[in-house]
Amino acid sequence: MAPTLRSVPHMPPTPALRADIPTSTTLTRALRDPRDAPVLALVIRLVLLLVPLAALLFLRFHWAIAVVYLALIQRYSAPFAGLIHEATHRRLFVPRWSALGTFFVEWIVAPSFGMSPYLYAAQHVGMHHAENNLEDDASATIAYQRDSISQYALYFLRFLFAAHWEVLGYLRARGKQPMLRRAALGLAAHYAVIAAALAHDWRAALTVLIVPMVFMRLAFSAGNWAQHGFIAPDAPDSPLGNTITCVEPRFNRETFNSGYHSAHHAAPRVHWSELPDALSRDFERYRAERAVVFVGVEYAHVFVAMMLRRYRWLAERHADYGEELSVVEARLRLRLRPARQRSGQGQ
Questions:
Q1: 166-216 per-position pLDDT tens digit
Q2: What is the extent of the structural domain holding 74?
Q3: Is 148 helix (H, G, I), strand (E, B) or coil?
Q4: Per-residue DSSP letter, 135
Q5: Is residue 238 within 8 Å of residue 230, measured between CB atoms?
Q6: 246 forms bridges with which residues in the sheet?
């Protein structure tokens, strides 16, 4: 029998998450919502860890320092993904601190992980949520066979070389000019810095700018492949039909509940700390619509299982809807196939 959803604990209550920064400090008063103290704590931690090492690599390069830097990028890749996700969906900082906070997130932390300033906001909020993983979304998975390594390779190459240019084209076509200008400026500045860095010291540029860019585009493409890997043929535009949920406490604690992807797509502006309750509150709807909910695993596990075609392994970790394991396995197989958006969707 698959584990039940209620056998897995959710996130700790919000006060426990605020332990990193006491609510009386100036840092916490810079936030619009004190529940975002862990997000601010992560921003500070990443700046203090990565900026000095990056500067040292450009001043006096050593391969041992490069290894440490890249190890930190790998260690904090998932928390960073949660951080940039939250920073693009809601304004984290009060007006007085907004410019400075945005500068550190978009111009310091994001490029440290190989991401051009404002590009994630353009892709994720400007396009992905607007198109809901349907065909006009450059990051859409709907047209692919999602348990195929070769199909994922094509998707990743598009993600690596073309998707960011497609995002700019999408924003231009949709008339989203402010977002287009910010993303284009960030992209141009990022590539200019990479060119200057390569001229200064190719080894440092490779370590600080290029390898993180390739690695994070691999990570984001694999994450999106898993998040939107199981699409209901009869409901490809439904948040419960084209997304998955991963209830894994450690992963969700580190990534600001990014595992609750279905609940997030259903209500993108709901605060991340409220997403577990949204799942519990609507669980009967999840059951009725046969939403894909995995328990005790995170997106990386799901992605690897998809590529290895371990359908039974995935079915064994699916939330209990009172069905035979073979029924769950068959449904998961079906939802990995290419799907078609119905007439009128995405328009």
A1: 999 999 999 999 999 999 999 999 999 999 999 999 999 999 999 999 999
A2: 5-335
A3: coil
A4: T
A5: no
A6: 294
For residue 344, being part of any structural domain is answered with no
Model confidence at 19: pLDDT above 60: no
Distance CA 326, CA 91 (A): 45
Assign 17 a pLDDT band (cuts: 50, 70, 90). very low
Which amino acid makes up residue 4? T
Q: How many domains does the chain have?
A: 1
Q: Does the pLDDT at position 24 exceed 80?
A: no
Instruction: For residue 18, name the pLDDT band (cuts at 50, 70, 90).
Output: very low
Which tokens is 45 given?
Answer: 């931690």
Residue 230: name the closest of 241, 218, 219 by CA: 241
Whole-angstrom CA distances from 120 to 80, 125, 198 are 12, 8, 24
- Could you tell me the two tokens for 344? 């009128």
Residue 53 lies in a domain: yes
How far from 343 is each of 128, 129, 132, 230, CA to CA, in Å? 19, 19, 15, 20
The number of beta carbons lying within 10 Å of the beta carbon of residue 308 is 11
- pLDDT for 261 beyond 50: yes
pLDDT at residue 343 in the model: 42
Rounded distance between C-alpha atoms, residue 94 and residue 161, angstroms: 36
DSSP output for 192-257 = HHHHHHHHH-HHHHIIIIIHHHHHHHHHHHHHHHHHT----TT-TTSTTTS-EEEE-HHHHHHTTS
Question: Measured between alpha carbons, how far is 192 from 125 in angstroms, rounded to an integer?
Answer: 25
Please tell me whether residue 318 adopts helix, strand or coil conformation: strand
Cβ atoms of residues 293 and 319 within 8 Å: yes
Residue 226 lies in a domain: yes
